[in-house]
Design a protein that fits this description.
- The two termini are about 40 Å apart.
- Helix content is about 70%, strand content about 0%.
- It has 4 helices and no strands.
- It is mostly helical.
Length: about 150
């Protein structure tokens, strides 16, 4: 199965997305700072600081998700419990943000968010828990019926 390449591609996309989020929030913070306007009597410096903090925290979150996916792909092992929870929360976040981007940004952004969501979910499913193989029923000796049930009619 091609689970390693999917996990590595998901990791690369998440890491690039993390950098993009930080850059976009930096641009927004610069615009707010240069305009020197307040919104509902909020201090412009507080809005600039909040934008930078939001970008940094969300960027770190996406980078952590990317590192978890990268480690899963490089080791070819399923992520641990906390790492799986992190990836599940990242998938939920991308689903919610994808729904919001349809109305706010457009269909292209929605398609990107759904591709990232698909990569994360495919990584989670591909590295799911492996079930032990089901053992076959013991073979009957000399054509006799098995002892744990009635003979076939």
């Amino acid at each position: 199965m091609a689970r390693r390449p999917v996990a590595v591609v998901a990791a690369i996309v998440l890491l690039v997305e993390a950098v993009g989020i930080v850059v976009i929030n930096g641009i927004l913070a610069t615009f707010v700072d240069k305009q020197d306007m307040s919104l509902a009597d909020l201090d412009p410096d507080a809005m600039v600081t909040g934008t930078w903090v939001m970008g940094g925290v969300f960027g770190l979150y996406l980078a952590a998700c990317g590192v978890v996916a990268l480690l899963a792909g490089l080791r070819d092992r399923a992520p641990g419990r906390v790492a799986r929870i992190l990836l599940i929360s990242c998938a939920i976040t991308h689903g919610v943000l994808g729904a919001l981007t349809v109305g706010l940004v457009g269909w292209d952004a929605f398609a990107f968010m759904m591709v990232v969501l698909g990569l994360i979910v495919l990584t989670l499913v591909a590295y799911g828990r492996e079930r032990p193989p089901v053992e076959d029923a013991p073979a009957a000796k000399d054509g006799a019926a098995p002892t744990n049930g009635a003979a076939p009619a």
